[in-house]
Amino acid sequence: MAIKIIFFARLRELSGHAELTVSLPVPTTPRAVWQHVLPDLALPEPLLVAIDQNYAQLDSPVQDGQEVAFFPPVTGG
């Protein structure tokens, strides 16, 4: 299954990618996507995840063709 992955803000720098598309077996989760793409980089804490532009949990199911976005918490000022 093909999944589009987007990294925002500091996570873009840490991962070395703005976005990419990967193929993974089903079923999968955002946690498994991160571990597949960045096996040597621990999941940062705190971390926000979205699936198709809706907030999700790291263990939420991801389906073929969906978009998974990783981003740090947003703060205002």
Folded structure, characterized:
This protein has 77 residues and is an alpha+beta fold. 18% of the residues lie in helices and 30% in strands. It has helices spanning 10-15, 30-37; strands at residues 2-7, 19-23, 48-51, 54-56, 67-71. A five-stranded mixed β-sheet has the order 2-1-5-3-4. A hairpin with a 2-residue loop joins strand 3 and strand 4. 18% of the residues are buried. The model has no long low-confidence stretch (mean pLDDT 92).
State the main characteristics.
alpha+beta, five-stranded mixed β-sheet, 77 residues, 2 helices, 5 strands, 30% strand
Q: How much is the radius of gyration in Å?
A: 12 Å
Strand order of the largest sheet: 2-1-5-3-4
**Helix percentage range:** 10-25%
Give the tally of β-strands: 5
- Proportion of residues in extended strands: 25-35%
Query: N-to-C SSE series?
Result: EHEHEEE
Amino-to-carboxy terminus distance:
40 Å
Helical stretch count? 2
Summarize the structure.
The chain is α+β, with helices and mostly antiparallel strands and 77 residues long. The chain contains two helices and five strands, in the order E-H-E-H-E-E-E.
List the helices and strands and how they pair.
Layout: E1 2-7, H1 10-15, E2 19-23, H2 30-37, E3 48-51, E4 54-56, E5 67-71
Parallel strand pairs: 1-5
Antiparallel strand pairs: 1-2, 3-4, 3-5
